[in-house]
Amino acid sequence: MIKQEMILRNTLRQLGFESQEILPQGGFGAVLARAGVGKTAFLVQLALSGLLNEKKVLHISLNDPVDKVAIWYKELFRLLAAGDETVNKTAYLESLLPNRFIMTFRVEGFSVAKLEERLSDLSEQGIFTPSIVIIDGLNFEESKIAEIQELKQMAERRGLQVWFTVQTHRHEDAAADGLPLFFAPLSHFFDIMLELRPEHADVHIKVLRGGGAAGESALLDPTTMLIKENL
């Protein structure tokens, strides 16, 4: 029961998408927000949904160490599973973790070539072959179109669904479509774009592009980082 209940609480379902499978193989998704608004927590929820659906998830962090990322998973799982006292939640989470692999890079040491080398090592040794990849902390203000194109080609070759965090800033110029100027030239690579925007005591989640749900929105509770209610 806990698995089904958590799948039904899937963040994407509550945003109007029909299922977790909103990205095609080789597809890119982005979560845009200012620092501290909840990008990592949001993507960890997407990753947990993937794990519940028996997908292998690679979480790449360019900012946080492995143990801090692992705490995000433990805490978000606890919150998502709250209310069901019939299951040993610790044991259930542990049963999902063989399908998750956390990888860290120093920001200045990240490159597509290094990532592909690590992925090949894991796969060729039979250690881990992901289908979903989370990349948390890539600096899109400094990223070149050629680098994103290279990442896209790698994702398509390997059949990966890739989610990114994109950090925005409070007072920055926007393109005609409302996207940050630094991100607008890269946005055509992305199938899905979601924005987290703090307003008063809540965080609004808005679908900017993709999945036939563009314009849908929901509220994120900044205390729990879970969707609070549909608008």
- Radius of gyration computed on alpha carbons: 17 Å
- Nearest-integer average pLDDT: 87
Query: Spans with pLDDT under 50 lasting ≥5 residues?
Result: none
Question: Number of folding domains?
Answer: 1
Cα-to-Cα separation, first versus last residue: 27 Å
- The CATH architecture category equals 3-Layer(aba) Sandwich
Label the structural class: alpha/beta
Query: How many strands in all?
Result: 9
**Fourth CATH level, the homologous superfamily:** P-loop containing nucleotide triphosphate hydrolases
Give the CATH class.
Alpha Beta
Overall outline: globular
User: Going across the major beta sheet, what is the strand order?
Assistant: 3-2-4-5-1-6-7-8-9
Provide key terms for this protein.
single chain, 231 residues, alpha/beta, Rossmann fold
Describe the structure.
By secondary structure, the chain is an alpha/beta fold. It has a single domain, classed as 3-Layer(aba) Sandwich (Rossmann fold), CATH 3.40.50. It is 32% helix and 23% strand. The chain is built from 7 helices and 9 strands. Helix 3 packs across helix 4. The model has no long low-confidence stretch (mean pLDDT 87).
